[in-house]
Amino acid sequence: MSEKQQRHSSTPRTSAPDAARPSQRRPARTVQPARRVAYDVLRAVSDSDAYANLLLPSAIATAGLSPQDAGLATELTYGTLRRRGTYDAIIASAAGRPVDEIDSAVLDALRSPRISCWRPG
């Protein structure tokens, strides 16, 4: 047995989860503002039958997005709505059940794979 293997085999193991060890925690993750705006608009469309073309401009203004982020939020929102049928078919197939049996917030997150990209905070 090598010296490295001996050190590791003699080291006591604990069952504490990573969250209990502050020095090994991952950094908190945040959602980019453009992605949050897009997701919020998609939620409103799903939950309240809101019109994305009416809601999105005010959501962008309220969030104070830069022109680049406003463009990203617009593309994420309209792109997800454009491909909704395709995403629903894929989700239903992968889940093994109809999409109307999936929680609407989860379904919106699954429908928008480009929105759910996270970045370190």
Any key phrases for this structure?
about 120 residues; globular; 6 helices; about 5% strand; N-utilizing Substance Protein B Homolog, Chain A; two-stranded antiparallel sheet; mainly alpha
What does this protein structure show overall?
It is a single chain. By secondary structure, this protein is mainly alpha-helical. The chain has one domain: N-utilizing Substance Protein B Homolog, Chain A. It is 60% helix and 3% strand. The protein has six helices and two strands. The protein has a two-stranded antiparallel ribbon with strand order 1-2. α2 (33-48) packs parallel to α4 (67-82) and α2 crosses α6 (104-111). The longest helix is centred in the middle third of the chain and has 16 residues, at 33-48. The mean pLDDT is 82.
Question: What is the gist of this entry?
Answer:
This protein is mainly α and 121 residues long. It has helices spanning 3-10, 33-48, 52-63, 67-82, 84-95, 104-111, and strands at 29-30, 119-120.
Strand order within the widest beta sheet: 1-2
Question: What proportion strand?
Answer: under 5%
Q: Give me the strand/helix succession.
A: HEHHHHHE
CATH class type: Mainly Alpha
* E-strand count: 2
Give the quaternary arrangement of the chains.
Answer: single chain
- Rg computed from alpha carbons, rounded to a whole number of angstroms: 21 Å
Shape, per Cα inertia axes: globular
Task: Tally the helices.
Answer: 6
**Biggest sheet details:** 2 strands, antiparallel
The helix-and-strand class reads mainly alpha
Unreliable residue runs: none
| CATH architecture term | Orthogonal Bundle
Distance between the termini: 42 Å
CATH topology: N-utilizing Substance Protein B Homolog, Chain A
Overall number of structural domains: 1
Mean pLDDT comes to 82
Helix content: 55-70%
CATH superfamily: NusB-like
